[in-house]
Amino acid sequence: GCALALLGRMLYLGESPWRERKELDSLSSLPAAFSDNRPRGFQEQRYRRLLRESGPTLYIPVPSIFNDISQDWWLWRFVSWVWYE
């Protein structure tokens, strides 16, 4: 009884002071030049400016998994931080 009543509320995707609803039907930018220097994005503070200002970007559909949309073996095997907007 109680679990079923809560289930409907837990899956509700509405806006609240803690959650902002976003549409996921667009393209996202991803840096095209991945670095072996993993903390580089933090050092360059990429989160403070648009990604296209830091170099070339790839455009990927949202939602998607960036590893699966390319035939580039390096991107397919990449495991680390990824900056996107």
UniProtKB/TrEMBL annotation:
What InterPro entries does this protein's entry cite? Galactose-bd-like_sf
Q: Can you name the source organism?
A: Macaca mulatta (Rhesus macaque)
- Hey, which family's this protein in? Belongs to the glycosyl hydrolase 2 family.
- Recorded protein name is Uncharacterized protein
Report which superkingdom the organism of origin falls in: Eukaryota
The UniProt entry, under SUPFAM superfamilies, shows: Galactose-binding domain-like (SSF49785)
